[in-house]
Amino acid sequence: MSIPFTLIDATPDSYSRFIDQLRARLTFGTTSQGIRVLPPSRQVGNNARFIYVDLTNYDGVTVTIGIDVVNAYVMGYEQGEQNYPLQTLPDDPAPVELLFPNTRSAGELPFTGHYASLGEYARRMQNEQPNRRDQQALNRLSNPMRQNIGLGPSSLHSAIDMLERAATPLSQAGAILVIIQMVSEAARYPYIERQVRESIQTGNSFLPDPRMLSLENNWSNLSRQIMGATRAGRESFSTSVSLDDAYQSHGAPPLVVNSVRDSFIQDMEIALLLHDRGDDRGTDQGNDPENCTPGPSGSGIGRRGGKKPRRQHE
């Protein structure tokens, strides 16, 4: 079954319930320092590799987002009779041919879910002659992308609408960036969840602040340090992790996290950990190389069965 979230009559609490369900479905019960750990790929069969969330906007339009349980990355989406998979990394492939087996693939989108890939695609588009439909998306996607794209209920509404229309890959890239941060990154970090809760309460959009961007960029690193210290039976990290303050532009110092005893860890300000596989490449879904987006657990498969359709390849 998919995990649903609708903007119709949405409240901060309905959003948090959605995020809580996502966190639970992404994991198999393993924890480190009390923090849920995503499963390693070797423990996940192909039929349990993805979970799905149904996002509905104010107009009642619904898109289904596929998420990889191994890393909580957004891997593509489905709307109507078509699906739109993102590219996968050649050195870290996921079985995306199994992502949406009951609908026809419209072909791979020309980017991965990593922030760097999304940004590079936007920059390439800026060097071409955009049509009028692309111009507004280009204005919003200029580098650095995340600082320029607002988040919140109105942004999510527009993102769902853009994915449903599938007008251009550029508009799809901007929409996916919104969803990565409001779904996957919020599942990873209560700080980001709280930002979205406040925006739902007030109805206002917000831009990612330096702390939020720093958290997104350091998820792999934080996961590695927390699990490495725990496995070695020590409190201190092998390498400190520096997180920008939300008001860094005003000269506030960064937060340095260097121990599992630090308040950042003890207060559970990170809610999901990437499994430390030893071969971790540090590719966060909203990071450099990025990818957004929360990855689910085996309990989330169910509705994705049946005959595998023929896929189109780029």
Automatic annotation (TrEMBL):
Q: Which UniProt keywords apply?
A: Hydrolase, Plant defense, Protein synthesis inhibitor, Toxin
Comp. bias regions, Basic residues = 304-314
Do the record's keywords include Disulfide bond? no
Q: Which InterPro entries match?
A: Ribosome-inact_prot_sf, Ribosome_inactivat_1/2, Ribosome_inactivat_prot, Ribosome_inactivat_prot_sub1, Ribosome_inactivat_prot_sub2
Listed GO biological process terms: defense response; negative regulation of translation
> Cross-referenced Pfam families, in alphabetical order?
RIP
Q: What class of enzyme is it?
A: hydrolase
Q: Which reaction does it catalyse?
A: Endohydrolysis of the N-glycosidic bond at one specific adenosine on the 28S rRNA
Q: Which family does the similarity line name?
A: Belongs to the ribosome-inactivating protein family.
Q: What is this protein called?
A: rRNA N-glycosylase
Q: What is the lineage of its organism?
A: Eukaryota, Viridiplantae, Streptophyta, Embryophyta, Tracheophyta
